[in-house]
Amino acid sequence: MIRFITTGGTIDKIYFDALSQFEVGESVLNEMLGEALVHIDYEIVPLLQKDSLELTDEDRRQLRAYIENDDALQFVVTHGTDTMPETAEGLAGIDDKTVVLTGSLSPARFRTTDAVFNVGMAVAAVQTSRPGVYIAMSGQVFEAGKVRKNREANRFEPLD
Amino acid sequence: MIRFITTGGTIDKIYFDALSQFEVGESVLNEMLGEALVHIDYEIVPLLQKDSLELTDEDRRQLRAYIENDDALQFVVTHGTDTMPETAEGLAGIDDKTVVLTGSLSPARFRTTDAVFNVGMAVAAVQTSRPGVYIAMSGQVFEAGKVRKNREANRFEPLD
Amino acid sequence: MIRFITTGGTIDKIYFDALSQFEVGESVLNEMLGEALVHIDYEIVPLLQKDSLELTDEDRRQLRAYIENDDALQFVVTHGTDTMPETAEGLAGIDDKTVVLTGSLSPARFRTTDAVFNVGMAVAAVQTSRPGVYIAMSGQVFEAGKVRKNREANRFEPLD
Amino acid sequence: MIRFITTGGTIDKIYFDALSQFEVGESVLNEMLGEALVHIDYEIVPLLQKDSLELTDEDRRQLRAYIENDDALQFVVTHGTDTMPETAEGLAGIDDKTVVLTGSLSPARFRTTDAVFNVGMAVAAVQTSRPGVYIAMSGQVFEAGKVRKNREANRFEPLD
Question: Cα–Cα–Cα angle for C118, A28, A130, nearest 5°?
């Protein structure tokens, strides 16, 4: 069984008309997995709905506690991109479960988006990787602690 | 470096107006990887353009020879779904490279399609799996020889 | 009230997996009008499901009879493109109602398609045009009898 | 010849990663008309890039002057929805040209949007309507001065 945990971020951004504000809303994950014709046992847990720049230490402790106390062994965590590497490092030491963080650089509801591909990567990586914490972004699967977001180039890359 | 090999199938179907015929055309892979914002070293080799029901033993020998003689270590093969399990079994014994077959149940050019998710899965699986031959479909990564297409249910599932 | 009549054609093409055949299926009109956030009084009548090359004189008589006997005054007819001009001419003489034929050169279910734009044109043209028979294609509203499909250029154009 | 004038609004909203801000950017009109396979003579003039709540009297004078001084006879104006009815009324008295305002309630770059349908309506209405000023939204073509946006219901409707 794969446990999906959503925490907000660009991937989940939706748009409300009134004052042209983007807001983080209901996860698009369920719709995405349906369209992908997946036949796996999964559940989606909406844990947080925040831009990743606004995530606090307490939020990260909550995420870690959730994973540690849950009986699932495979976790896909959707997350804003700006602090995804920090959150991944904050999960270090979880050695008996496989956790893959992913997200997207443009919202899943856009016509052109990296969201679907990235979630596909995460779903495969969580099944095929040894226990540990990973980030699936930019067409690559990185180990936690060995990746950074290059904001100027708009991509994730290995930490030197 | 990831070597993508396209062989045709539903994922690559395109539509020509004249007599409402679908035909297998230029691969949509390059466009898909661009939209997914991947930053990996890759090359796409268009090897065959066939419905998978029309693939011959000779076609499969050609695919196997290509993989064996190529210097890449990671291969993603796009393929029609109907005989994907047979082709995977035909690649058995390639033990020093990782080969992941994928495709889709509806064309990549459709507005609603499983193609992008599946290729995302394959790109992750080829990086994270031990050498061997795999199929990434229906939200799962299967080992060659342990999977079949359930045509009625329109999904891939473990072989009992 | 706008009466939509569907007769088949590329706009309604859907894809069934089995043998890679496109088939004309349930109209996508209802979904399209919902997404377009239309707030008009309308009903959709699925009259025929044919490629327009296969439409017979009897089919065209049936369409004409339907329009003449219906109490609506505004009709949007979705139709295959190959014989759309012939069908429009066959409706000539209906002078107390406004009839707009439209369709698309690529299926509405494709990610890239002219279908939505064309139906938008037809919905406006049927409200703003004097009674008569029209074709809305290629960004233009043509009068019946003054338009042809240029198959090579894949567009509709004025008849000289 | 149809002159398209873009003034900003939701239809043109694009998304920049940095701080999750939507911004009004380059018009998507050209891409949209290409995908719609239009074969009409047209030019796009980017006049303003504003949310319609921020449009000033001076902006509206500029728009009116542009239309009055231009030699085209058919104008499609893309515009934010919140004050589209006011702008339409501000163009009242232009009696020798046909002007159709349109826009969308969700951005054209979204996967699900009313933008393409609405521009299709406007392109037809500008060709088939008598000179005057109109709004094409919510599946309807309204005359200026006879329409309002119902913000709660998220639609345009006739003014009582």
Answer: 130
Q: Which residue of A has its CA nearest to D24?
A: A20
Q: How close is the nearest chain D Cα to the Cα of C112, in Å? A: 7
User: 3-state secondary structure string, C40-80?
Assistant: CCEEEEECCCCCHHHCCHHHHHHHHHHHHHCCCCEEEEECC
Q: Dihedral (C-alpha) B140, B143, B145, B151: value to the nearest 10 degrees?
A: 10
Question: Distances from the Cα of C139 to the Cαs of A64, C5, D33, in angstroms?
Answer: 55, 21, 8
CA distance C102 to D129: 19
Q: Measured between CA atoms, how close is C91 to chain B, in angstroms?
A: 25
Helix (H, G, I), strand (E, B) or coil at B123: helix
Is B10 in CB contact (< 8 Å) with chain C? yes
Q: Do C106 and B15 touch (CB under 8 A)?
A: yes
Q: How far is CA C27 from the centre of its chain?
A: 11
Global pTM reads: 0.92
ipTM score here? Answer: 0.94
Q: Which residues of A touch D106 (CB under 8 A)?
A: 15, 17
The residue count for chain C: 160
Taking the CA atoms of A53, A56, A61 and A62 in sequence, report the sign of the dihedral they define: negative
Residues 115-144 of B with CB under 8 A from A: 116-125, 127-129, 136, 138-141
Residue window 89-108, chain B: list those with CB within 8 Å of chain A.
105
The parts of chain B modelled with pLDDT lower than 70 are: 15-26
pLDDT in tens, A64-85: 999 999 999 999 999 999 999 9
